Amino acid sequence: MTRYVAFLRAVNVGGTGKLPMSELRSMCESIGCTNVRTYIASGNVVFDSKLGEAAVKTRLERCLATYAGKPVGVLIRTAAELAAVLAGNPFTRAEPDRRHLPR
């Protein structure tokens, strides 16, 4: 069983690309994913699957296309890949730049 993170392109809570996170969780569960969790209304979802990365991506993209009526880009990474990115962060001592965050 592999832990994956899926990042969806152009998904939001209103307007174009509206996708409730409850619907995204249901889609993931419908393709056999377990321990499915979403993060706010971000289009990001974490789950476990026995499927390989390419199969997860293909199946999730099909579900999303059916739901949205158009292709939705999906980027899949394993939890291990994201942990490696975090561990390799060359800016760990830099102060956060919060100038562009919403107030």
From TrEMBL:
SUPFAM superfamilies: SP0830-like
Secretion signal span: none
PANTHER family xrefs: BLL4334 PROTEIN, DUF1697 DOMAIN-CONTAINING PROTEIN
Protein name: DUF1697 domain-containing protein
Organism taxonomic ancestry: Bacteria, Pseudomonadati, Pseudomonadota, Betaproteobacteria, Burkholderiales
